[in-house]
Amino acid sequence: MARILQQDDALEAACRHLAAGEAVAMPTETVYGLAADATNGEAVARIFEAKGRPRFNPLIAHVADMEMARRFAVFPPLAERLAGAFWPGPLTLVLPQAEGSAIHPLATAGLDTVALRCPRGFARQAIARLGRPLAAPSANVSGRISATTAEAVQAQLGTRIPLIVDGGPTPVGLESTIVKVAGETLTLLRPGGLAAEEIERVAGRALVRGTTGVEAPGMLASHYAPSARLRLNVAQVEPGEALLAFGPRRARGAETAVKVLNLSPAGDLREAAANLFGHLAALDLGAAAVIAVEPVPASGLGEAINDRLARAAAPRDTGGEKL
Ligand code: AMP
Ligand code: MG
User: Fold this and answer.
1) CA distance 127 to 70
2) Where does the record place the YrdC-like domain (predicted)?
3) How far apart are the CA of 184 and the centre of ligand 1, in A?
4) CA 160 to CA 25: how far, in whole Å?
């Protein structure tokens, strides 16, 4: 079972685990979050692993203040105003990523936008102390109810994480409200702990509604798709193909590949998850029209890796033409 520390005594221990790339459960004002360094791909992979998430959906990166937020996102005037009014608090803003943003692509699911929030309470202290943003989805097993007490976290994730910070029951108890800001357009992506009307009052305009979740799954799939075609589970590499490898043994013909990148030479799924988006993007920059992909085991994080690869390999909305 995880160690539980009261929040007044937990800052140093929590930051030690986080700096070591581990995931720590901690209170925010909304629900308990399962937090890890958002700039460290393996740390982010640990979140998916502990939650047993079958998919790498984008996570919210939590920041300590506006100064930190500006390192990762571009704030149009409307976003500036909303953050000024509601941060710290239960409002997440989806914004264009800033040039040179250090948020790991596993945390943004490879999108060119980033979801940012400045939380209240212990989580904010930990972020400020660490000096880095924390990716933190709700601290529950995937598909189960969000945890609003340390005991609830222990019951779901206790065997999978080293530390739970106990701050008592969370005051809001609902996840944050997510608003996407694109220039002057505000879209409500998820209703949550801050009422839409309050946001509209401060923004002086209506929120566009009707979209739920991240994006339509089809749209999301095309975000993940490289422009090269993917060939999955290959045993034989054809001449001229690039190769996305996994583990210590190579597919036949690997020596003819124009470029080879290995997700994890040791066959470690956590390392592979952390490398997935970056390696795909790097191979896609090369000249190869086809990226051959070696089999990745389906267990543990492998399920999410295979899900993501299958989406990247899916025919495009353009009828399969190269985009
Ligand atoms: P949670 O699992 O509670 O952290 O929720 C994270 C949610 O934030 C995801 O399910 C998405 O709906 C949303 N989200 C995060 N990043 C983005 C993004 N870049 N664009 C759109 N939605 C996002
Ligand atoms: Mg959740």
Assistant:
1) 15
2) 8-194
3) 20
4) 11
Q: Please say whether the beta carbons of 137 and 47 come within 8 A.
A: yes
pLDDT of amino acid 195: 84
Residue nearest to atom 3 of ligand 1 (CA): 137
Residue 292: per-residue pLDDT: 98
- Which atom of ligand 1 is nearest the CA belonging to 114? 19
Give all strands (DSSP E) within the chain, no chain letters: 3-6, 24-27, 32-37, 60-62, 91-96, 113-117, 134-135, 163-166, 177-182, 185-190, 229-231, 242-245, 260-262, 290-293
pTM of the model: 0.83
Retrieve residue 141's tokens: 């097993």
Ligand 1 contact, 96 CB (< 6 A): no
Residue 114 beta carbon below 6 angstroms from any ligand 1 atom: yes
Task: Decide whether any atom of ligand 1 lies within 6 Å of the 217 Cβ.
Answer: no
Q: Can you give the pLDDT at residue 207?
A: 94
Distance in angstroms (rounded) separating the CA atoms of residues 178 and 208 = 12
- Given this model, what pLDDT does residue 301 score? 82
| Cβ 226 vs Cβ 280: under 8 Å | yes
- Residue 79 C-alpha from the chain's centroid: 21
pLDDT-flagged residues of the chain (< 50): 213, 215-223, 317-323
> Per DSSP, what are the bridge partners of residue 26?
33
Domains and CATH numbers, the chain: 3-203 (3.90.870.10), 229-313 (no CATH)
Pairing verdict, β 185-190 and 177-182:
antiparallel
Whether 31 and 123 have beta carbons less than 8 Å apart is answered as no
Strands 60-62 and 134-135: antiparallel
Q: Which mutation among 51, 140, 178 tests ligand 1's pocket best, with the greatest number of atoms within 8 A of CB? A: 178
